[in-house]
Recover the amino acids of this structure.
């Protein structure tokens, strides 16, 4: 019997809730709490195939299983999902051979589920720039948006903020005549993600900066996709789209994680990584800006991760959607202004942002970057000379002087050394 093992058992359902006991032995017990894993869906799940309902449970423990080399046992599981997990694991092992990625799956009963409805397509949606751009790009094709609460990028410790995000997402979905399904989980209470990151982030980063969490993305994205499985079955989806954070070109250049989305599969669902050939600035220019300017109203972008930290409580309590100060906020504000879009229409507050303040932070190196973050800033810099004339004329949020300065500034000065702490670690 393997020393490192994760047993998934006693799956129960009630209404829209899925609950399952998880028992960890050996090293995995360092990262898994003893309480049950729970997922709350806003559609009934009791009649769904248990081979699909077990998928989010397995997905939640994947980071622990893969990084500790633990075996996983489960009562029932979709056979196509099992095969796809093994293929993804093989890709991850080739990418980081020094890490285990040797999980075996012991499934008592496996079968292929069938649930798809003709032509129905879903999108993993976060109110972020990437997923919003993917929706606007595929607007005529997508019928369902799926949003998660209780994950690394959307913790539930501030329920008021979470409910506001849900309300904005619901309003956006209603305006565009699509359905929105919200999934909540206690995963962060049961999986010690921060400890897992502390122990394995440097190995995952490889030759990149150890704090470059983009190398967690391959694993994290597999978790999110698994969480969507019951919705995909309940909503009878034929395809599920997920937007990448960086373009395929940048991923290859920086040696980031393998693309896992289109390898994962279950039932008769097709998973698609959408917009992989677009940079973030191209997404603003081609999809976000035209939508806002065409009179559809604003886009509720929620790009900020640090807003969930304790030192941003005042901003959250004031009703702010984004802090307007972290890396992602600053770059998004500048990217919108560059295309002639008022960031206020996208969830950013003018009083919390200063273009001159960003310039000073860059010059005195208090705004440091990983290699991935540097690629985003270089993308922004690359588009400065192609600003629309109306954007230059309007000088939104007084950014013209900043762009003129940035066009000649050497951003590599702000690439953090391995020993330097980063202001924000998410790119």
């Amino acid at each position: 019997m393997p020393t490192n093992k994760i047993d998934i058992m006693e799956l129960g359902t009630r209404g829209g809730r899925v609950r399952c006991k998880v028992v960890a032995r050996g090293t995995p017990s360092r990262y898994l709490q003893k309480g049950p894993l729970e997922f709350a869906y806003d559609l009934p799940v009791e009649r769904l195939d248990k081979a699909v309902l077990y998928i989010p449970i397995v997905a939640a423990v994947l980071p622990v299983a893969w990084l500790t080399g633990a075996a996983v046992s489960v009562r029932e599981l979709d056979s196509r999902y099992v095969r796809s997990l093994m293929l993804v694991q093989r890709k991850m092992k080739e990418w980081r051979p020094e890490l285990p990625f040797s999980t075996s799956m012991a499934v008592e009963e496996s079968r292929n589920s069938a649930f798809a409805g003709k032509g129905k397509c879903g999108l993993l949606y976060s109110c972020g720039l990437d997923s919003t751009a993917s929706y606007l790009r595929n607007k005529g094709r997508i019928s369902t948006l799926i949003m998660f609460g209780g994950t690394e990028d959307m913790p539930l410790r501030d329920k008021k903020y979470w409910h506001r995000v849900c309300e904005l997402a619901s309003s956006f979905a209603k305006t565009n005549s699509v359905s929105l399904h919200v999934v909540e989980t206690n995963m962060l209470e049961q999986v010690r993600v921060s400890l897992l990151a502390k122990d394995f982030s440097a190995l995952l980063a490889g030759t990149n900066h150890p704090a470059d969490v983009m190398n967690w993305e391959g694993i994290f994205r597999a978790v999110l996709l698994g969480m969507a499985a019951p919705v995909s079955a309940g909503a009878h989806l034929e395809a599920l789209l997920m937007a990448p954070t960086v373009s395929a070109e940048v991923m290859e250049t920086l040696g980031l994680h393998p693309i896992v989305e289109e390898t994962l599969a279950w039932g008769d669902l097709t998973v698609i990584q959408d917009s992989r050939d677009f940079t973030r600035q191209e997404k603003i220019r081609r999809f976000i800006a035209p939508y806002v300017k065409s009179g559809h109203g604003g886009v509720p972008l929620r790009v900020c991760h640090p807003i969930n930290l304790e030192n941003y409580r005042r901003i959250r309590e004031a009703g702010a959607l984004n802090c307007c100060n972290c890396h992602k906020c600053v770059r998004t504000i500048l990217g919108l202004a560059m295309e002639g879009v008022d960031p206020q229409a996208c969830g950013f507050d003018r009083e919390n942002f200063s273009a001159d303040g960003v310039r000073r932070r860059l010059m005195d190196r208090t705004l440091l970057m990983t290699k991935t973050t540097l690629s985003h800033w270089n993308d922004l810099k690359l588009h400065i000379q192609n600003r629309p004339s109306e954007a230059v004329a309007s000088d939104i949020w007084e950014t013209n002087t900043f762009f003129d300065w940035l066009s000649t500034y050497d951003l590599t000065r702000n690439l953090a050394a391995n020993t330097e702490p980063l202001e924000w670690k998410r790119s």
About this structure: Residues 121 and 239 are 5 Å apart (CA to CA).
